[in-house]
Amino acid sequence: MVKVKALIFIGLLLGLIASAIAAIYFKYNARLMFIEIQKQEAALDQYEVEWGQLQLELTTLTEENQLEQVARDKLKLIVPQRDKIIYIKP
Hints:
Blueprint lengths: L1 H61 L1 H10 L17
């Protein structure tokens, strides 16, 4: 009878230790995942800022005045004379 109680006690003690170790392990993994989520959210915020900047740059570059100025200044393009323009009908 005493041996049975001792075995039950040892079994319960081992179960308690195993569950404590499992709880610590899962808590540690949860913290690691939380840290990774925070890193990914920070990266997402940075990408959203960059996306907004690119949208603003796109809007600026597509304005006719800006496009014409870049064509003239950087590409050295000029508007052809009226008689040199050839229209192609579809």
